[in-house]
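Q: My collaborator sent me two sequences in one message, no labels, and asked for predicted structures for both. Can we handle them in order? The first one she listed is below.
A: Yes, handling them in the order given. First sequence, followed by its structure tokens:
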Amino acid sequence: MPIKVLLADDTDLMRHAIRKLITEEKRIELVGEASNFGQAMQLIADIKPEVLLLDLHLAEKREFTAALVKSQLASVENVLAVSFSNGAEAEALAESYGAKLLLDKMKLFNQLIPAILNCSALRRQAGA
């Protein structure tokens, strides 16, 4: 059974690149895409993805406090944040949202698929 992934990124080009990476991996199913935080929240409620790939700097999300974002994302088992800036500030922001991992957008080609598959492996271990 493929891992259900929801992608939330406000850049069309980045969504296209991530979609291409994900759709080439048969163990992962891209079940939805959102270009803003409101769409992502609606899709989370409708689809119930196992993994959310969240652009850490999603423009619309800035209107929300970290606590509100974290509470909105609480129903997603695995939040993976993605960002071009991955310093201490980005790591702290990702952690405040409850993200399990912060991925560098410049290195997604090598990092993305293993990170998603690792979420599934952790879930299997917890259930064992």
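Q: And the one she listed second?
A: Here it is, processed independently of the first:
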Amino acid sequence: MTRWLPRSLFARMVLVLLAGLLLAQLLSFMIYWRERGELALRASGMRSAQRIADIVKLLDSIAPAERARIVKVLDAPPLRISLDAPPLAPVSGADERAEHAARFTALLRRFLREDHPLVVQVTDAPPWAPGPHGMMGGPGMMSGPGMMGGKGPPLGPGTLPPGRHGMSFVVQARLADGTRVTFDSRQPAEASDWPYRLLISLTVLLAAVIVVALVAVRWVTRPLKTLAQAADTLGEDINRPPLDERGPDEVRSAARAFNLMQERLAKFIRDRTRIFAAMSHDLKTPITRMRLRAELLGDPQLRAKFVKDLEEMESLIGATLDFMRGLDDREAAQPLDIMALLESLQEDAREVGGKVRIEGGAHAPFHGHAQALKRCLGNLIHNAVKYGKAATVSVEDTGAQLRILVRDQGPGIPEADLERVFEPFHRLEGSRSRDTGGTGLGLSIARNIARAHGGEIVLRNLPAGGLEATLSLPRRAADVTTAGSAAS
């Protein structure tokens, strides 16, 4: 289920807000759709009951001879009136029609006295029969079997053909002199037409809320995105400008805490670098004195051992300083010709007897730190030549990423140590041991430089033998701008 959810906080918040809003709109529309027909029926039923009660009072107050003339005048849709309809049977049962009949009877009782017996039935309303001259209405309408004004069996529930034309309340009231007056009051059907005005209103409201939600969610999540970008670039430049401490209290607190953390990290690295630099400076003097004294030894074998130990100490001190310098490198970034850089390293390796072959090429300059990248690639190529006798460097440029693969033909590395070799001062047994002169910092320095450029270094053993180091460097906007300038 979670795999279908959006990955960003912005998209998830928008999804939750829109889902809640759509659900609320749907429920509101369903409630409205359910209640509108019932409310319309009640309103029209109140008007019909009022009119029937008034007609009953009118007919009860005039002479029987005048009633037929009055009924002829008042008999018109949606209320049909008859003085000669057969008697209606009282409604029995507890279905929906009986419930409507009871409600309509209660409405009539509000306007009529108890001395007017009432019988109310509910039937489906068929289409009105066309009257004279093609008009709808007039005496003689609804003539036919089971309808007032026509001949046929008594009118009762179910005698009218069902349809979607509304509902009829058939009311039979008894006047003071015993005359039965039958009314057929057509009630409007529950409106089958869609409430377009309501739908338009809901759509406008939904669109307005969506726009407001998008703006509000973007406004809320933007500081988080800025903080994430700052955290991502912190590893590339510990001395990057601090975050702007503006906005809501929570955002200001987070930005202030991030800036304080960055300041402490930068100070810690600077202090550690100064300590190692001071140690290096202090150690060089006694090492130099020891080297001079070693030259005065008369035993050649003992002198060679002293010189070897001193060279190892100098190598260890230099590698440690390089490692620390990689963490606090303030070299300015600039467009670099990667192929020229690799060719210079190839020439350096050839001078000491190493074999380096270069394949592929970069399509555009890479924006980075020249000396740092040279040290990074130099360490990878040096390891390949040293432990694998030869190195093959392949350059792959996809436009979005620059990949440099360094392969050797050596014995490889145990799978369990492919990540451990990046730990400072970690050495492997066998060919990659202290006897070879390694300090255990070359790969650590290379990975630190790669991560400072937003990239990564990964090691893997080749199926045919040997080790492959893959340096992945993402291209930035500066690379695209440089490539465009070069193309123009």
